[in-house]
Amino acid sequence: MPFFFSKKPAILLTAQYEKEHAAKSSVLWALLLVSMKVVVGIMTGSLGILAEAAHSGLDLVAAFVTFLAVRESSKPADREHRYGHGKVENLSALFETLLLVITCFWIFYEAVKRLASGQVEVQVTFWSFFVMAVSIVVDISRSRMLYATAKKHHSQALEADALHFSTDIWSSAVVILGLLCVAASDIFHNADFLHYADAVAAILVGIIVVQVSMKLGMRTISALLDATPVGFEDEVIRSVEKIPGIVNCHHVRVRASGAQVFVDLHVLIDGEVPLRKAHKLTEDVERVIQALSPDADVTVHPEPR
Question: For 197, what's the count of Cα atoms within 13 Å in the CB-facing half-sphere?
């Protein structure tokens, strides 16, 4: 049952259910867009639309991989994976980046071949504009849904999908502009150069995809290499050292496994305090860090001053 028709109380809708629903919806919409763009692209001969169809085809694969990754990452930690299976989401984002790069090569190759040969036959019809307009509406809707779910549940895989689909909006707009130029060249016969606008639009789509690929790739690699979020370590130290009884906070290590954040740190406390009080201080440290990053797994090593 779709999320928005569910009769379950909101409190019973688990994070995993919402993440899987968002990923599943993305797959279904991607399948619809691929079918529409392939049919209209072949009918009209528009390279811009066919380039978008190829892009949406890889979107479909990426969305399906994201759906599988979201399901896999929800598995609890076991003896072989002490930090859980959250890195599967990061791998999913990396796979999506590679698919985007493949798309770019195909788009550039086809566009340059058409421009070099001068054989550009594009039929601009109502359906050309209709399928691209539908694509923009769908991408706006699903990117907002994915962004909201990713932000709520700290899912990098869903965030990568959302970023991907938000850039599809601009690439679709570029294709529409190319089709308008082709239509104008049929009206104004002294502006034949506009007939090549569809191929040029396809190249612009490829450039947009390259930019998205670079951004996704850098973020994914950083996550796989356990890079600490910029400024988070300093924020942890400042917050922990404000706790009465904590003399110093140091040796902070942060790593993320999907939506789960793991924080290890050392704190300096009075060496004469009773064990119970020292343990209470470590619990205070955990609460402070979890205020910065909800559900963070915190390991505190107290050291005597």
Answer: 20
Assign a CATH topology to domain 3-224. Answer: Alpha-lytic protease prodomain-like (1.20.1510)
Q: How far is Cα 106 from Cα 108, in angstroms, rounded to an integer?
A: 6
pLDDT digits (tens, 9 = 90+) for 99-126: 777 777 777 877 787 777 765 555 666 7
Q: What is the pLDDT of residues 173-203, one digit of tens each?
A: 777 777 787 777 767 766 666 667 767 777 8
Rg (CA), the chain: 25
CA-wise closest residue to 132 among 124, 143, 142, 121:
124
Evaluate whether 3-224 and 232-304 have a shared fold: no
Q: Please give the structure tokens belonging to residue 164.
A: 């991907």
Q: Which residue has the tokens 């406390």?
A: 269
Q: What is the rounded CA–CA span in Å between residue 303 and residue 305?
A: 7
Residue with tokens 């770019």: 104
Q: Give the single-character DSSP code of 228.
A: P
246-257 and 297-304 as β-strands: parallel, antiparallel, unpaired?
Answer: unpaired
